[in-house]
Structure formats: C-alpha cells, structure tokens
Amino acid sequence: MPKIYVANRQIVRPGDLLAEGDDVKGGDYTYRIGNKIYASVLGLANVDDGVVSVIPLEGMNMPKEGDVVIGLVTSVGITNWIVDIRGPYKAVLNANEALESFNPITDDLRKYLDVGDYIIAKIIVFDRTRNPLLTIKGKGLGKITEGKVIDVKPSRVPRIIGKKKAMLNILIEQTKCTIIVGQNGRIWIRCPNEELEDILVRAIRKIEAEAHIPGLTERVKRFIEEEKRRLGIA
Amino acid sequence: MEKPVLIREDGLRHDGRRPDELRPIRMEVGILKNADGSALVQFGKTKVIAAVYGPREIHPKHLTLPDRALIRCRYHMAPFSTSERKSPAPSRREIELSKVIREALEATIFTEYFPRTTIDVFIEVLQADGGTRTAGLTAASLAVVDAGIPMKDLVAAVAVGKVDGVLVLDIDEIEDEFGEADMPVAMMPSLDRIVLLQLNGVLTREEFRNALELAKKGIMEIYRLQKESLTKKYLMYPEE
Predict the structure, then answer these.
(1) Which of A51, A127, B82, B188 is most open to solvent, judged by the fewest CB atoms within 10 Å of its CB?
(2) What's the pTM value of the predicted model, to 2 decimals?
(3) Regarding the domain with residue range B25-229, which homologous superfamily does it belong to in the CATH classification?
C-alpha cells in the first residue's frame, strides 16, 4: 500500500520523507532508499498521479538540450565564442552555428559578436561530460541589439512563464512589452516606454519574491493594473 | 586560570544549564547577498556564518574531477573570535577541521550531479565559545540547502563532553578546557547516519554509548530548528 506523507504545495526540505511503498514513483529532486522516497532540495512538494516530485525554490540552472537561453559573450576565440549562461558550465558557440560561411583566416569573429554582447541562443548538445554547445541559427535567436536584459533566480522561471504561459501572457498583454524568457533566468524585455518597463520589472520582481504563494497570477494582474492607474497609463 | 566549578551542587552546570540542555540556538538562512547560499548559526556565545558558492567552474583547472563535483571547504576563525587575537593564517587545527567538515558534507551532497564543477564552502567563526566545528557544520549544511544543491539530508551536529564525571550536552569553551572528554558528533538525522565523530579524551564503553545517545537527542532538537529556519524564510511574505 503506497503511503504519501506530504500535501501538494507543502514546503519540504532535503531529507524529508515524502512517500513510502514500492509502487510510488519519485520524480525530480527526490531520491529513493529501499521503498522510501525522500526530498533532495528545499522546495514545494508536488503529488501527481502516483508520482511525488519537488519543485525547487532555490538553485542554479542546469542546461538542457533544446533550452532557449540568454547568454553573455565573455571571450572570443579563433573559431568560437565563450558564452556565460549563468550555470555551472560555460557554453560554447561555434562560428558555424552563427555565420553562414566562415573562413578563420580572413574573418575576425569580433566583427559579429564581441565581449559584452547578449545573445538569445538555443542549447543544441549537452551531456555534462562536455560544456554545452549553442546555436543562434533559427527563428527568434541571435544577437540582442535593443531593450533590456534582467536577471532573475533560475528557479523562478517556470512561475514567470506560468501554466500554459498564463503568467507570461498577462505580462505581455498588460504592459505591451516584448518578453523573451531564457530558461537560465535571464529575461529580455523591450517596452514601448519607460513607465511600462518599470512596472514590468517590478511585476517580475514580485513574481520572484512570492513564487511559492498560491494565487500569484491574479495578484500580479491586479498589481500591474493598479500601477498603471496610479501612473495614469491606460 | 584556575579550574572553576563545572558541576554545581544542585547538579546544574556552571552556566546554569542541565546536563542534557543545549545552549540557546539561533539560525538564519540567506543572510549574504553575494553567496549562492548562506546561513548564520549561533549556539550561545558561539557565532558562525557559512557561505556556499557553486556549483561553478573550477580554478585551477587541474583539480577538476571528471565524474563528480569537487567540494572545497575552508573553516576559519576570525582574528577577533577569541579573547586572545588569533593569527588569521590557517592553523594546523583549522586545516584539520576543514577536512572533517568537508568529508561530512561529501556524504550528503549529490556531487555526481555536477561533474567537473566545484562547490566552495566557507565557514567563518565570528565568535568562539566551544563547539565551533559543530556550529560550523550545522551552518554549512543550511547554506548548501539555501544554494539549492541537491543533498540527501541536512547535517546537524553537536558536541557531548564529560566534565567532573558527568556527561553533558553542547559543551562550551570552559567545559572543554577543564573537562575530561569532548566528543563532536554530526548526523544526517532522517537517515540516522553519522557523518562526523571525533573523540578527545577518555570515555568508557558505557559512557561512549550514553554520550552518543545524548548527542542524538541534541541533534534531533537542532534538526528541528534547522527545518524551522528553512521554512521561515518562505513564510516572511504575508498573504495579501
């Protein structure tokens, strides 16, 4: 008989016993000893159809293949760029993943991307034994030339996007900004004016701070509406 | 200094505690902005902060481990932490404590999740009054949780001592100096596993068994406070 000891959305800490029984499955951020399942990080318990997992409240970004991330170019090599994607590993962007035709003898990569440039990129290969490889070939990828990049905790990214993009759609709808959320906790925003940009940044900070309290989407919506009214923006 | 009365006639200790009583404990998580994880732990007059950075890239590169993360640990006592100024250079004792604390943490952290990276743990003793290694380890494990690094369990630690023939929990500086034995113990409480055990002095087998029981009792209480302090950080934002 499976026994589950935690309620949905309950705060759990490493070592907390989540469930007992051979037919219970442990999901993300859990581990099993015998027939007992324990949490391995501080987070919120999530019980779903016999699978017990933990949604972490803290933590770094672990790159995943296919993730869209926002990176900062930190050095330029002969045939590649080294990109900081805010994780344990530095990412590599090879020249042939950025340019159509490229000749290392005549071309200087600094002409295209230099140290300090932000890029929207996709992780194409990553398996922990080597550093992640990026590409900026594809729709919506490439160098960032306008707008702002803000950093948030990587563990808050799922909340900023929301279930079926609910939260993200509210943010876009309410502030009329263009928003790209990188899985690594960097967000690129481009807003019609400074007032809306300021409201958006504060709304994102609010999501970051209150990610673990239910009813967040409604609260954020109200927050933006009130702020807009206060500043006299329709 | 002359030996003070360690166990008073009424059976209480020199500071008025019962033999099985802990000092007042305070724990706070997430106190440093620049660290990925941090914690402050206070056991009576012993005050320790811990900061965790990582997992991050290793420098120098040749220390890289291909299959797991490298844990580096520095236990350090601030020059102002003792009544006589302590030289800030790492002493033989600090190097040893860094090692035993590192090994205790290696037992609980899932290092294999982050190959080729390092997790740096800094433990700084701000004020020393006995039991700094146990307070340091307690703080370090909270800081690791705060950094979001996956681990098997928290680590809670406490020292048991023997003073004037009586086993006492959570010994302080004076009891350590004039007592007969000092035994720091660290455990992963939910898994009931010991990750650090040292013994300085002499205990009989019987006394050792009792001392370990006493330590376990103290550890369960510290564990409860650790969990409370972790939860507290997320209860600070009130519901609207």
Answers:
(1) A127
(2) 0.92
(3) GHMP Kinase, N-terminal domain (3.30.230.70)
Residue extents of the structural domains in chain B: 25-229
Joined together, the tokens standing for residue A31 give 């581990």
**CA A88 remoteness from chain centre:** 14
Beta carbons of A31 and B55 less than 8 Å apart: no
pLDDT in tens, B16-66: 999 999 999 999 999 999 999 999 999 999 999 999 998 999 999 999 999
In this model, does residue A212 exceed pLDDT 90? no
* Beta carbons of B110 and A40 less than 8 Å apart: yes
Counting DSSP H helices and E strands in chain B, the numbers are: 4, 10
Maximum alpha-carbon separation in chain A: 69
Q: Which of B152, B187, B224, B229 to mutate to test the interface with A (most CBs of A within 10 A)?
A: B152
> Which residues of A are less than 8 Å from B237 in CB distance?
209-210, 213
Mean pLDDT of all residues in A178-186: 95
For B19, the token pair is: 């033999």
- Mean of all residue pLDDT scores within chain A: 92
- Which residue of A lies nearest to B69 if distances are taken between CA atoms? A88
Residues 6+ apart with CB under 8 A from A218: none
ipTM of the assembly?
0.91
Tokens, residue A106? 């005549």
The tokens of B5 are what? 């009365």
pLDDT tens by residue, B115-133: 999 999 999 999 999 999 9
Q: B82-88 long-range contacts, Cβ below 8 Å, gap at least 24?
A: B82/B128
Looking up tokens 């019609």 gives A192
